[in-house]
Amino acid sequence: MRAWVYHGNNDIRREELPEPAPGPGQVAVKIAFNGICGTDLHEIFHGPMFIPVSDPDPRTGHVGPVTLGHEASGTVKALGDGVSDLRIGQRVAIEPIVRGSASSVGAYNLDAAFYGLMAPGFLADTAVVNRASVHPVPDSVSLADAALTEPLATCWHAVTKTNLTEGDSSVVFGAGPIGIGTALSLRARGVERVAVVEPSDNRRKILDELGFTTIDPRSHDYHEELDEFAGPGVKATFDAAGVASVVSDGITTLAPLGQLVIVATHVAPVPIDLNSLLIAEKSIVSSVAYLDDFGQVIDLLAKGAFPSSSWVETVPFDRFLDQGVESVRAGSAVKVLIEVSGE
Q1: How far apart are CA 128 and CA 342, in angstroms?
Q2: How confident is the model at residue 104 (pLDDT cuts 50, 70, 90)?
Q3: Which residues contact 24 (CB under 8 A, 6 or more apart)?
Q4: Which residues neighbour 300 within 8 Å (Cβ) at sequence distance 6 or greater?
Q5: What would the CATH number be for the domain defined by 153-286?
Q6: What is the pTM of this model?
Q7: Which stretches does DSSP call E strand in the chain?
Q8: Could you tell me if 181 and 330 are in contact, meaning their C-beta atoms sit under 8 angstroms apart?
Q9: What share of the chain is helix, strand, coil (3-state, %, to 5)?
């Protein structure tokens, strides 16, 4: 079978690998689409960061080159012994956390191992995963949209960290896939008044078309626009940008008792004025991946809560590197799905 395999920094190879077969409690999935994630780019150009190239991963035992990809959809191809609640040909989304690697507090999203990083992933014709990673998808959801379940579950999980309800306001900083998904998740939760801070003209246009208020942080009156939208402050802000200045702006924009939710990765430590939190009992919370959120996201996809045509594009399997990765890296594309077998 075809696969895109990570061998090291800037060393990604299209290879022919043996077709994997499911073991007990496992499922083989014929991959339809797989999304390119920012983590993939970090590994390709700055890694290895998480991929165990030299030493075995303590949770999965994997070491050495690994098939990339952790945002996928497809159809069930084969069932291992003990799996009786799925059928061949069933349409599914794959949750890429390797269950069984949960931290001591029992939340499987903490200190997790992922397919596509610490175990063979989904940028291949076939992938084998544990049954717990497979989520059936209704016929009303396309397999392309189903491949968005993983990043959207990250967004939905972040939104559920807050106490936002219908009638509240919020500000999202950053309009990459996670920022857009967070804004859409807020709307799905009933939060209609959402502003997104984003410097890219193209991404602000996409958000305008989706019906969100947008603010350009490069504008000379940026903070005035932000203050005008927030008024006395909003209950929650979201850092989906990973930029140090966003943390300060996110805190300032909050009302007393408000929450700044960190959902982006920061590459360097960020200075924080703790007094700005203390005097108004504001708080900073973090959100990583997802925890039993796939089912809710799939239900919301079926209800049309996550329109994707304006910010998602597909690229053929063989163009993963030269077209897919490069367009995401250059910022000319917001979200790219690699078409493996398609619908």
Answers
A1: 18
A2: very low
A3: 80, 81, 82
A4: 152, 156, 188, 306
A5: 3.40.50.720
A6: 0.95
A7: 2-8, 11-16, 26-35, 66-67, 72-79, 91-94, 126-130, 134-136, 169-173, 193-197, 213-215, 234-239, 254-262, 283-286, 312-316, 335-339
A8: no
A9: 25, 25, 45
Structural contact between residues 253 and 215, judged by C-beta atoms closer than 8 angstroms: no
The domain limits of the chain are 2-148+308-339, 153-286
pLDDT value at residue 102:
43
Q: Over the stretch 125-140, which tens digit does the pLDDT of each residue have?
A: 999 999 999 999 999 9
- Predicted confidence (pLDDT) at residue 288 exceeds the cutoff of 80: yes
Paired tokens of 322: 């030269």
- Read off the tokens for 122: 């989904």
Cβ neighbours of residue 275 closer than 8 Å, sequence gap 6 or more: none
Q: Are 15 and 3 in contact (CB under 8 A)?
A: yes
Question: Is cis: bond before 256, omega within 30 of 0?
Answer: no
Residue at token pair 């990673």: 133
Q: 283 is written with which tokens? A: 């708080």
* Distance from the Cα of residue 57 to its chain's centroid: 22
Q: Locate 11 and state its tokens.
A: 């060393």
Helix, strand or coil, per DSSP, at residue 325: helix
Q: What fold, for 2-148+308-339?
A: Quinone Oxidoreductase; Chain A, domain 1 (3.90.180)
